[in-house]
Amino acid sequence: MFADRARIFVKSGKGGDGHVSFRREKYVPNGGPDGGDGGNGGSVYFVVDEGLNTLTDFRNVRKYAAGNGENGGKRNCSGKNGEDIFIKVPEGTVIKECESGKVITDMSGDNRRFLLLSGGKGGNGNQHYATSTMQAPKYAQPGQPALELELILELKVIADVGLVGFPNVGKSTLLSKVTNARPKIANYHFTTLNPNLGVVDLEDAKGFVIADIPGLIEGASEGIGLGHEFLRHIERTKLILHIVDAASTEGRDPIADIYAINQELTAYNQEIAKRPQIIAANKIDMIYEQDDNPVDRIRAEFEPKGIPVYAISALSGQGLRELLYDINNRLTQMDSNPVVFEQEFFPEYHFDMSSEPFTVVYDSEEDAYVVEGPRIEKMLSYTNLESEKGFQFFQNFLKDNGILEQLEKLGIQEGDTVRMYGLSFDYYK
After folding, report:
1. 424: buried, middle or exposed (CB in 10 Å: 19+, 13-18, 0-12)?
2. What does the alpha-carbon distance between residue 418 and residue 428 come to, in Å, rounded to a whole number?
3. Which of 109, 115, 258, 413 has the lowest CB atom count within 10 Å?
4. Neighbours of 406 (CB within 10 A)
């Protein structure tokens, strides 16, 4: 059973509590504190498994929890760290926060392993709190609590070209003819129940990956039919190849079909509808009325709109070479990097960090304003400042936590330097 969407619950491990104890040995009646530290809780990681291609496993197991850290013990014995948990997903899995629907990470490209939730830090034992005036501290630090999230996992296949069109127009036949894919083919609707991927190899050309997006019908964007279940797979494609039954073997109007499918794409995601599109007028081997050639009518309707139309027969192979080389040429002019979804939800910031301190000072020797502290270090560790959304999140973090306000109180001016853990920024309002 193919599955491309799952809802799961994940939880990191709680940090172990620090221990309160005192050294009590023969001849040492008044030994000092020797309470050990608690172990760190286990963290939750997602990793790409090349052997997986569906999310079926998550239908049976929906809760995933890392191990808790053990409490500290006597004689300075530290508790054992909790075990990390590594959740395996297929490449192309997008992980979202359930309530907001925002992207946490996209397990694609170079992102093969992602730390989702850090385990709670173990608490200090009472040995850390002994001072000259407090030689027998009777308290220890509790471990940090576990973090938990409900997630939506969505598998969005990684392909350069997405095949769309009504059922039974020849998409699977085309895919089997031009790639190494072997989809099941039969003369009935909704034969294809999985998004099939295939690699197109061309002489003296790089080639590309093509995906058959199954079962689009009118109303698919509203959840009607099987198409709604697979529309997400077209989100990564850079070019859309629209297959249409030019011979109207089922009595359908090919022009009306093209408009209907494009309307579904627009309703689902307007950005997808704006992507380059090529129309493949299929089944020309079954056109017998030469006086009224439907391919000419399709060209007259769509080529003035900038959409090229190719007359093909997926069954006989007629016209396929010209179509494939045109697709390849168009792809070579596009960005070669795969479509990867940017992070929109930052788990660590989602949880309250208000108790973690930070400092804002002016360093006269370096002539720079220095911002440091656990809260700042943690924020920088999970923020991609090179992305537009990541940098916007960074700016909001500085504002929401009062850091900008403190910088202004210290007299910062536009163009002054702000330094945070090796990163330097120019300050501008």
Report:
1. exposed
2. 10
3. 413
4. 17
Q: What's 361's DSSP letter?
A: E
Of 152, 164, 168, the closest CA to residue 268 belongs to 164
Sheet holding 63-65, edge to edge: 63-65, 5-11, 148-155, 93-97, 103-107
| Cβ contacts of 207 within 8 Å, gap of 6 or more | 199, 200, 201, 328
DSSP symbol at 25: B
Whether the pLDDT of residue 267 is over 80: the answer is yes
Sign for the pseudo-dihedral over CA of 58, 60, 62, 66: negative
**CA-CA distance, 132 to 101, in Å (whole number)?**
53
Q: Which helix (H) or strand (E) holds 176?
A: helix 171-178
Rounded CA separation 154/340 (Å)? 13
Give the max Cα distance, the chain: 113
Which are the contacts of 155, defined by CB distance < 8 A and separation ≥ 6?
3, 4, 5, 54, 55, 89, 90, 92, 93, 94, 232, 233
pLDDT of residue 41: 94
Where does the pLDDT of residue 420 fall: very low under 50, low under 70, confident under 90, or very high at 90 and above?
Answer: confident
Closest Cα partner for 211 from 244, 239, 245?
239
pLDDT in tens, 181-220: 554 444 334 344 566 777 888 887 777 888 887 655 555 4
Element (H, E) at 300: helix 294-302
Beta-bridged to residue 103, according to DSSP, are 96
Higher-scoring residue by pLDDT: 356, 223: 356
CA distances from 42 to 62, 76, 85, 122, 351 (A): 18, 21, 7, 11, 17
Whole-angstrom distance, CA of residue 309 vs CA of residue 316: 18
| pLDDT tens digits along 326-340 | 999 999 888 777 778
Q: Please tell me the predicted confidence (pLDDT) of residue 184.
A: 45
Query: What pLDDT is attached to residue 82?
Result: 95
CA distances from residue 325 to 196, 211, 321, 331, 376 in whole angstroms, order as listed: 21, 17, 6, 10, 51
Least confident interval from 139-148, 162-171, 228-237, 300-309: 228-237
Q: Which DSSP string do the residues of 87-155 spell out, in sequence order?
A: EEE-TTEEEEETTT--EEEEE-TT--EEEEEPPPPPPPPGGGG--SS-SS----PPPPPP-EEEEEEEE
Burial of 315 (0-12, 13-18, 19+ CB in 10 A): middle
